[in-house]
Amino acid sequence: GEGIDNFWKVLEEGKNCTVEIPPERFNTEEWYDPDSNKPGKICTTRAALLNEFNTFDNHLFGINSVEAESMDPQQKLLLECTYKALEDAGVPVEAISGTKTGVFIGLMNRDFEIVRSKLVNEINHYAGTGSATSIAANRVNFTFNLTGPSLTIDTACSSFLFALHYTLRAIKSGN
């Protein structure tokens, strides 16, 4: 569900939020095999999915439609979550613009980049910035006009913890 209250409710109730993957999201018939050791196959037909996948309002963030098509959904979600977090905190976007605010993100999955790199006819001058995980923190900094440090960290499952570590170091050092 949407919002922090729904998130806590799911945690409190120990709810399993997975659903059958709909065909418009992913062709499970082509990729599914119950044998988890079979190369090139998946062994599940379920996932925890966002209800409003691909409803990104690119114009809100000053991003043209061609660039938005080339953007990893993770980058889109980061922009939306940053906007919502500021809104929930009662901080107008204008109030942080130009400030020495840093962005530290732990990010590890490159699914979008891998899939898009195979679609040779769809590669354009936004392909690199739209799919590279290294750009994620920079995109948030640029979009919200932040002038502090900007770092995307990939240390696999510990990515968030390292991002938090670097965030705390930056705060302590005054960066």
From TrEMBL:
It comes from the Eukaryota. Gene3D superfamilies: 3.40.47.10. GO terms for molecular function: fatty acid synthase activity. The keyword Phosphoprotein applies. GO terms for biological process: fatty acid biosynthetic process. The keyword Glycoprotein does not apply. Residues 1-175 form the Ketosynthase family 3 (KS3) domain. Keywords: Phosphopantetheine, Phosphoprotein. It holds the Pfam family ketoacyl-synt. PANTHER family: FATTY ACID SYNTHASE, SI:DKEY-61P9.11. This is MOKA synthase. It comes from Odontophorus gujanensis (marbled wood quail). The gene is Moka.
